[in-house]
Design goal:
Blueprint lengths: L1 E2 L1 H16 L14 E6 L5 E5 L12 H11 L5 E3 L2 H4 L14 E3 H9 L4 H12 L2 H14 L22 H11 L3 H7 L3 E5 L6 E5 L4 H4 L3 E9 L3 E10 L2 E10 L2 H15 E6 L4 E6 L7 E6 L3 E6 L6 E7 L12 E9 L2 E10 L15
Antiparallel strand pairs: 1-15, 2-3, 2-10, 4-5, 6-7, 8-9, 9-10, 11-14, 12-13, 13-17, 15-16, 16-17
Length: 368
């Protein structure tokens, strides 16, 4: 195994060029929010934090977890019969459900996420979990599984209770998981929609409470929340040039402006360095094979998000068998690349054969 010095030099030149073309890392924006987090949705790295683990009332951002569980426990096409408990919800936003109403689960989730309807969230929980209390317990259990250890739910719609809490970090973590589901992403990125009742001639127009969807370039989610105890809250996401960031602000005096400032900070001052799974890494020569060169590819994605001013400290160290003996199996491990930032390892992945190379038949060994 030998170091591929040419590849290491190429990476250093790229990092230096990128770093040289940008000013030093700008100071993060000042936010009035009691707690805030900016997270890279793909890597999970925290790019900004203010009281990230402080327990706060999450208000209707709770409905992110409500939707996660509903999508995993039921089908969007399910017909939900609204029970009296959901119909009796009167505090905060609602969509006007009555006991015995019939709507699809998909429409109830739209009402819950887009219109922040509290009655819809209760109807979802009752249908998917069998009871609202059991569903809330499952919400907490799911949060624990995702690593959200400072979160506890006692209801599905975000009503303020002493034992109903989360943190800016936990909400970012939960949202990162939720955005992996295309159905969730589609709903939270919808500006306007309509829900239709199945048992009576009635419908409701929905307008997304997340104003960033109309005012911020690349905004594609996620959820607002407001109660007296929680203040104004927002979990926002935006995607630019293939990078998705999540901003959380809790008890903010200007939730849309502060979330936008955090997102701007992430897009303008950080760079994602990435080697994608299946990406061609290099070519190596082979002797005695049916082809003279072998494609070497990255087995699994390795990436990191770094401040622009630290790009010059990104380094990859490579070990690679530059003359593998034939035959070579597709997927055969030929080496490894290890990614470092400022001397600390941040990821590694095997380098594997991207194709099969068979031994050349003996009667063709003299052919060039």
């Amino acid at each position: 195994m030998a170091l591929t010095g040419r590849k290491l030099m190429a990476v250093a030149l790229i990092a230096g060029w990128l770093a040289g073309g940008h000013p030093a890392l700008a100071d993060p924006p000042r936010v009035s929010a009691d707690a805030a987090v900016l997270m890279d949705a793909e890597t999970g790295q925290v790019l900004y934090a203010k009281n990230p683990h402080k327990r706060r009332a999450p208000a209707s951002t709770t409905k992110i977890m409500t939707t996660i569980l509903a999508l995993e426990m039921a089908e969007l096409t399910d017909v939900v019969v609204v029970d009296p408990r959901a119909a009796s919800v009167e505090v905060g936003s609602d969509v006007g459900l009555r006991a015995g109403d019939r709507l699809t689960l998909e429409d109830l989730l739209k009402a819950s996420l887009i219109g922040s309807a509290n009655d819809a969230a209760v109807a979802v929980a009752d249908h998917a979990g069998g009871s609202v209390d059991l569903f809330a317990d499952l919400m907490t259990r799911k949060a624990r599984i995702l690593g959200a250890r400072n979160t506890n739910f006692v209801n599905p719609n975000g009503y303020s209770k002493s034992q109903h809490y989360s943190t800016a970090y936990d909400l970012a973590l939960i949202t990162r998981y939720a955005l992996l589901d295309e159905r969730f992403s589609e709903i939270v990125g919808t500006r306007e929609d309509r829900v239709t009742w199945l048992n009576r001639e009635h419908y409701a127009e929905l307008e997304n409470t997340n104003h960033l969807l109309k005012t911020y370039d690349g905004a594609d989610g996620v959820k607002t929340g407001t109660t007296r105890a929680a203040g104004e809250c927002l979990v926002a996401s935006a995607t630019r040039q293939g990078r998705r960031l999540i901003a959380v602000v809790l008890r903010s005096h200007s939730r849309f402006g502060e979330a936008a400032s955090l997102l701007d900070h992430g897009f303008q001052n950080f760079y994602r360095w990435r080697l994608g799974a299946g990406e061609l890494f290099t070519l190596v020569p082979v002797q005695g094979g049916e082809t003279n060169h072998l494609k070497v590819v990255v087995e699994r994605t390795v990436q990191t998000t770094v401040p622009l001013e630290e790009l010059g400290q990104v380094e990859q160290k490579v070990t690679l068998d530059r003359h593998p003996p034939v035959p070579v199996r597709k997927g055969q491990v030929l080496g490894e690349v290890v990614l470092y930032v400022a001397g600390s390892e941040v990821g590694r992945t095997p380098l594997v054969a991207g194709e099969e190379v068979k031994r050349r038949p003996w009667w063709k060994l003299d052919e060039r």
